[in-house]
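For reproducibility, we list the full input for the 2-acetamido-2-deoxy-beta-D-glucopyranose complex.
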Amino acid sequence: MDILSLLIFVACILIPSLKVSTAIDTIHLSQCISDGMTLVSQGGKFEFGFFSPNHSNKHYLGIWYKNIIPQTVVWVAERAINDSLAILTVNRTGNLVLRHHDNVVWHTPSEKQAQNPVVQLLDSGNLVVREESETDPEAYLWQSFDYPSDTALPGMKLGWNLRTGREWRMTSWKSPDDPSPGDFYWGMLLYNYPEFYLMKGKEKILRIGPWNGLHFSGIPDQKPNPVYAYHYISNKDEIYYTYSQENDGVISRLEINQTSSTISRYVWMEDKQFWKVYKSRPRDNCDYYGMCGAYGTCVITGSQFCQCLEKFSPKSPKAWNKADWSQGCVRNKPLNCTNKLRDGFMKVKGVKLPDTTHTWVDETIGLEECRVRCLNNCSCMAYTNSDIRGEGSGCVMWFGDLNDIRQFDGEGQDLYIRMDASELGEQRHYKEVLILVYTTIAIILGMLLVGCFRIYVGRCTITDILRNQNRGGSEDDQDLPLVDLSTIVTATDNFSINNKIGEGGFGLVYKGRLVSGQEIAVKRLSRTSGQGMREFKNEVKLIAKLQHRNLVKLLACCVQQQDIMLVYEYMTNRSLDRLIFDDTEAKLLDWPKRFNIICGIARGLLYLHQDSRLRIIHRDLKASNVLIDDQLNPKISDFGIARIFGGDETEGSTQRVVGTYGYMAPEYAADGIFSVKSDVFSFGILMLEIISGKRSRGFYIENHSPNLVTHAWSLWKKGRAIEMIDSNIEDSCALSDVLRCIHVSLLCVQQHAEDRPAMPSVVLMLGSESELAEPKEPGFYLNNDVGATPAISGDIISINELTITSLEAR
Ligand SMILES: *[C@@H]1O[C@H](CO)[C@@H](O)[C@H](O)[C@H]1NC(C)=O
Ligand SMILES: *[C@@H]1O[C@H](CO)[C@@H](O)[C@H](O)[C@H]1NC(C)=O
Ligand SMILES: *[C@@H]1O[C@H](CO)[C@@H](O)[C@H](O)[C@H]1NC(C)=O
Ligand SMILES: *[C@@H]1O[C@H](CO)[C@@H](O)[C@H](O)[C@H]1NC(C)=O
Ligand SMILES: *[C@@H]1O[C@H](CO)[C@@H](O)[C@H](O)[C@H]1NC(C)=O
Ligand SMILES: *[C@@H]1O[C@H](CO)[C@@H](O)[C@H](O)[C@H]1NC(C)=O
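The corresponding predicted structure, in tokenized form, follows.
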């Protein structure tokens, strides 16, 4: 011990004046904590100091609720001290150091160097060591939340920090009298499809199933509730579960307990002064891991808990009949994989997915491709969607025996289990083979195309675009199905306000559900006079023929006197503006995803502009008109509507200006002159928004720029374009790629339409590394022409993001 720490040590024990009488939540370098002294968090919720469990004469450092009796300890430092002569200090390098007599018996690790470290107990129950001036939780030198004991408090993470390889897991106390780490823990096993388990050493006690996008597979009744909100975060840096308090008055905690072998959530009953068990697991026999063996399924309402899956029988009927189910079940007809094509799948509904130890996941493919992949590998025993949100997406496959399945009543997920074809019936088999053959051919062709022509991975390529065009431009002379009003009225619950999902330039958008269960989006347009019904229908039919994977599909239409209703496919993932301008969502949208979106929009727009029979100018391209599907592919919506209304105007000037401030090309906004180049302008703006995560029309006062374009331009000229990149994508992007995109956007928003590239060149520029021209000064309508455009009054301009539907030009 050096002289300084000796002095502190002596001072701490001998000078009672240092034993503060008023509650403090922080200690500094020169201060210390000994037995009898505590830190109290600012709001008085938690207390930190030494404690002794009942029936124990040992002393521990811990955190407990300040105002709850019996003392409820939520965190404890592992080492016990035999007497009350220990001292806790923080030293210059930011380590908490616990000294007993002359020895350091416990200290915290610290990866970073400290200048002026302080120890503070926060109101969340988190004890942190931080630089005195530091407020960013990510930069804490140490925090108790990173080292959970047997309790998870709101805001604590359970899972893995993939960057550092640190696990956040809850470990039980040995016993109520002994807080040292016991044998039980609650943690996430990092399989390809990760799962939380209650473990006893290496033995699995129970699992709640993998996260399926909505909830853990084994807890289908997990629902939003007034006590706590749960969150599951998975990205390249971290994967964890956490929960937050919904209501500040509710005190709840999650605790793992070795004595009772449970993990339970408690809620503090203020009036009755006790901890009520809100939920506890295992809650029934079916929760115990592997209760029914391989291919057995546990049914809590069954005559006996365990049953064999359909077309399976007990492996040992003798044991099974004595209620020893652990050996599980075997197939009635064993698989014989000499001919893969002979196999098929049996759909089992309403289950908790099997143990995921041997799984493989691909989030980018759907159920059909998943099936083919599974069929093609003899050890693949089952598959299903990895994410059940919406229609379901992603693929998970199981290899080897299927363990720990549980059957739910009415809830639960679908699982497709491999079976010999003879178990499935001939017809099915035939269909199976056809699908397999077709999809295999398609995959091979796809791979060939991709392999031969995709030179730059992750970029738009010409072949992509050609392929899409061929697919999209197919001559399909079927008339657009007309549906009658009653169908739509039923589907939308008579245009109930509850079903309204949007408001576009020409009318309201409703969500609907057909009797068949299919979800649709209905756009209700108000027709203006001056156009005959026949022309009107013809236009709609023409528009309906436009099909491209980056365009929202028009399914049907309905004409009723003054109303026309367009029925579109329904997109679950909302519109682009709700992803890029939302703090949480934007974090999940890394650069490769954003680039994919940019390319998709470019392809869709190219298709609209280039389709030989029908050149469509969108006129209102903006983030809220780009819908995003489950796979994060963009689909342009609202295309052709201007045309439906405008009749035979194809290009030129219009009496009606349709568009949105912030996206409108100057010549269009001011003079009503539109062309494919005004769409290119809007596309340029959209790209800038995707890259910066900022709205085109926002306030950029600190930069002395009235809007995003002028801001981008001024940074570009100063060679500081990097500064406009959304901080959420800094980690996931190659700067040169993003800079190239900014460059392309600036070319798109040049003031003079003739300087702007057309969409084919835009797509080429995005997909290659060729030299780009220097952009000229951008045009921006608000910047240059506010005064010069009497047609637009001040109060309309102030409405952000509203589509201007009918604005008569001078
Ligand atoms: C110990 O027991 C006493 C009385 O039974 C109780 O008041 C106190 O809260 C208990 N302490 C702990 C840590 O359980
Ligand atoms: C506490 O006492 C036990 C036995 O009485 C001894 O083994 C242990 O080393 C002591 N611990 C400390 C920190 O002094
Ligand atoms: C602080 O304590 C840790 C752990 O005992 C030790 O490694 C480190 O050197 C100490 N730093 C100083 C400045 O004493
Ligand atoms: C665990 O459960 C037992 C029995 O329900 C209870 O007595 C004990 O206080 C709980 N807590 C700990 C830390 O063991
Ligand atoms: C598998 O099937 C092939 C032909 O369908 C047959 O010749 C072979 O004996 C079978 N093997 C087993 C183990 O049943
Ligand atoms: C089947 O999948 C397993 C697990 O991914 C893999 O190890 C094996 O090589 C695959 N077999 C074939 C024939 O692809």
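Confidence is low (pLDDT under 50) at residues 451-477, 783-810. DSSP finds 18 helices and 45 strands in the chain. Both points were considered when choosing residues for closer inspection.
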